Task: structure prediction
Amino acid sequence: MRGPPTVLAASSALAVNILDASSLLSAFGAIGIAAVLFAETGLLVGFLLPGDSLLFTAGLLCVSGAHGGPHLVLWQVLLSAVVGALAGAQVGYLIGRRGGRALLARSERKALKEGVARAEELLTQYGHAKAIVLARFIPVVRTVLNPMAGVLEVPQRTFALWQVVGGLVWSVGVVLAGYALGSSVPDIDRYLLPIIGLVVVVSVIPIALEMFRARRAARQGGGV
Result:
């Protein structure tokens, strides 16, 4: 015997896999995009959330009749993505200004600590503007750079300007890339899981490259 609709809906929500883009979009639709991007770019607990794959998958699901999953509306997806990405980054910056270094220091997550080190390096090596934009495309780093910018007292106007530029390019660009692929490839639904897997792999490449670079630098430094 089936339970009341409210009970079934609650059970479905509890069964959502927050690390799976398709599961999140099926359960929450476009509003879920704003929530996930806000958490990933503004809250330190969101560094494992699937930002890249979520945006790309959402773009694919905006193509009418090209898939068997939930149909999303492109303008709603773009609006949710932009709001989540920009608001999250600004909140992350404010957290950093108000004691973010202490929060970062208390974390025992190795990936988060490595992200902090890389975020500081980006800000030092490339300057504020370029680092803020580049960080959007590097998982984990895009989570910690915003509070680090606040900790390092990057000027508020500078941060606001370049986080908006980077946030727009990243969020809109990845969604439209998914939409373009879904529009140009017939029966995209048959290839959805492999495509999402590829997006996840591609999003991890920058982290792998940075880890390799850091280890090589450490070995060279130890040999001097």
Notes: The two ends are 72 Å apart (CA to CA).
